[in-house]
Amino acid sequence: xxxxxxxxxxxxxxSTDGDRATVVVGGEVDMATADAMYGAATDGGVGRVxxxxxxxxxxxxxGIHALIRLAARYPGALExxxxxxxxxxxxxxxxxxxxxxxxxx
Length: 105
Known about the structure:
This protein is of the alpha/beta class. The protein is 30% helix and 33% strand. It is built from three helices and four strands. Helix 1 runs parallel beside helix 2.
């Protein structure tokens, strides 16, 4: 639930193929859910991560912080597939040119 007591819409699933984890996130990534997204991406002991955010409808600074942490944890081994709302937030934050950010999904 978020601060005003309404339930947050969020889903995350992870699959692995060898040394790569693919984490598919949907719904809202905010201070209530960003740690779950980060945890799903770091839980498998893999060396490479694809973060599929094409189904994310809301993304705030907590999500940005989680992405920065993931980029530091997986240098050169992180790929992020953004939804249009995620891409827009990353543009505003000055992160649209990061090598881990793939073209919009």
